[in-house]
Amino acid sequence: MSKATCMIAISLILGSILACTSGPARQSAPVSPEPGAAQAFHKKVYTSKPRHLTGMTFIKYLDGSNQDQFMARRGNSTYTFMIDKADSSLNRGDLVRVTWKDSTITVPGNAVRVPARKLLAVQKTGDGPVSRFRKYYGKQLNYTWPTDENYTSRHLDKIYLSTEYYLAGTSNPLLRLAIRQQQALTYSIETRERENRLYTVVGIATAGANGSQIVQWLFIGVEDDLIYEYDLPEDRLVKLPGQ
Length: 243
What we know:
The chain has 243 residues and is of the alpha+beta class. Helix content is 26%, strand content 39%. The strands form two sheets. The protein has a six-stranded mixed sheet with strand order 6-7-8-9-10-11. Strand 1 (51-62) and strand 2 (69-74) form a beta hairpin. The radius of gyration is 38 Å and the shape is globular.
């Protein structure tokens, strides 16, 4: 076999080998995520609740048959939060920093759940008028009520706090003088109906030469706890601002 013939044979053999091994490129199999990885990601996204941090002014705690609540104000808006336990160290008007999250609560009487705010933490950031009044005045208020009225201790405590809140910001000159001189202050309690609404009427008295003398009447709504000064000459109720 000549040299040229050998070269042609070798070329044909190599061509056959390449034809057998060539073809479309084989694609790599896609990499599957580890089992449970997608579930873990979705669980983190959908169950984590954002927390809110807001400065507010404390108003009061509300006793509910289904859920106790914390009430506070920010600007002209009032907010309520579900709570697990009340903090007795807070006084009405104290400045607080509230940490809360969005949640739900079951409506009493049925299984419907509605949006609600869940209180996570409260931090006092400043004294309100009641806290400052207690530090300045430094005395307990005394009170009396008719023997035929069966007021509960809870109701008496609520009226005490409302009266104290009023005294902390009163503009009555006789009461301001008595507070400044740390004189004893007393008040009477009775229930009256006015214009088809029920009120707890409080008569605040200062000590005088001839005994105690009532210098200011308050009407406190039984249903909403709103405080009104009684304007005797005009026979009208004046709502206390800032409620």
